[in-house]
Design brief:
Layout: E1 2-6, H1 10-19, H2 21-27, E2 32-36, E3 50-51, E4 61-62, H3 64-74, E5 80-89, H4 92-99, E6 103-108, H5 116-121, E7 125-128, H6 138-149, H7 161-164, E8 182-183, E9 186-187, H8 197-215, H9 229-237
Helix pairs in contact: 1-2, 1-6, 4-6, 8-9
This protein binds adenine.
Residues 83-85, 109, 128-130, 132-134, 136-137, 140 line the site of adenine (ADE).
């Protein structure tokens, strides 16, 4: 997959990529990451990439021209996605959609914004990583890069692990444990050491349901009563493993 990033801080993207799973994905030929600095497409002696906003107001706005020129020069893959707090919310479903593409381009905003002609006439989409304002799109681009590339076949060691985790089935992930079995009196649940894989799968789903109901009730807006009968039976079969997750009772859903 080819991924291009347009940013006036190329070192931020390249430094992170080199030190993370992305670096290995690049070396393995799974990801072709190309980072472009719009500053290289400027024509003035100061290589300026920003200017005061028309209409007045605080701060500087990234100018459209170097960004347009950079896109013409590198012909990066589409869609071109602007990172901006005004974009649609980036979540696991968006990450999965992006992971199915042949490639895409991330365009990092900065300062008080980007000349809106970039969004209107150059970008195909805009995403936000959350309802808060970062100083620029670079950290948001890294979030998107990592969330998408770890879903690509071959990038994670274990193909299974990206499918099982939090959000991919609309639930939080079940608790995981590794050795030792006993740590200062805290034991790993017996069921996980039983070798009964069908029972382990049922226990895990029950724990995912308990966690989601307790910690992210917005993901299950019907509450316990809205669950499928098989899932309600799982909650009867297994108590919550984690004392922080109180077992919900039928009728606990929103009134
Ligand atoms: N740039 C600044 N804030 C951002 C956000 N929340 N998401 C994406 N890009 C941003």
């Amino acid at each position: 997959m080819r991924i291009d990033v347009l940013t006036i801080f190329p070192d931020v993207i390249e430094g992170f990529a080199a030190a993370s799973l992305l670096g290995r994905a690049q070396r393995d030929g799974l990801v072709d990451l190309r980072v472009h600095d719009p500053r290289d497409a400027t024509s003035d002696v100061h290589r300026s990439v920003d200017d005061a906003p028309y209409g007045g107001g605080a701060g500087m706005v990234l100018t459209a021209e170097p960004i347009f020129r950079s896109v013409v020069a590198h012909d990066p893959p589409r869609p071109v996605v602007l990172l901006s707090p005004t974009g649609r919310r980036f979540d696991q479903a968006v990450a999965q959609d992006m992971a199915r593409l042949d490639g895409f381009t991330l365009l990092c905003g900065r300062y008080e914004g980007v000349d809106d002609r970039v969004r209107r006439h150059l970008c195909d989409d805009a995403v936000s990583v959350g309802d808060y304002v970062l100083a620029g799109g670079e950290v948001a681009a890294l979030v998107v890069l990592e969330a998408v590339t770890r879903l690509l076949p071959g990038v994670m060691g274990n193909e299974q692990s990206a499918g099982d985790e939090s959000f991919s089935g609309g639930l939080l992930e079940y608790p995981q444990f590794t050795r030792p079995a006993s740590l200062e009196g805290h034991e790993v649940p017996d069921v996980l050491r039983s070798g009964d894989h069908a029972r382990i799968a049922r226990w895990r789903r029950a724990q995912s349901l308990y966690r989601t109901l307790a910690w992210r009730p917005d993901l299950l807006p019907g509450g316990v009563d809205g669950l499928a009968p098989e899932d309600r039976r799982l909650l009867e079969e297994f108590p919550p493993d984690d004392p922080d997750v109180a077992g919900p009772e039928p009728g606990d859903g929103p009134s």
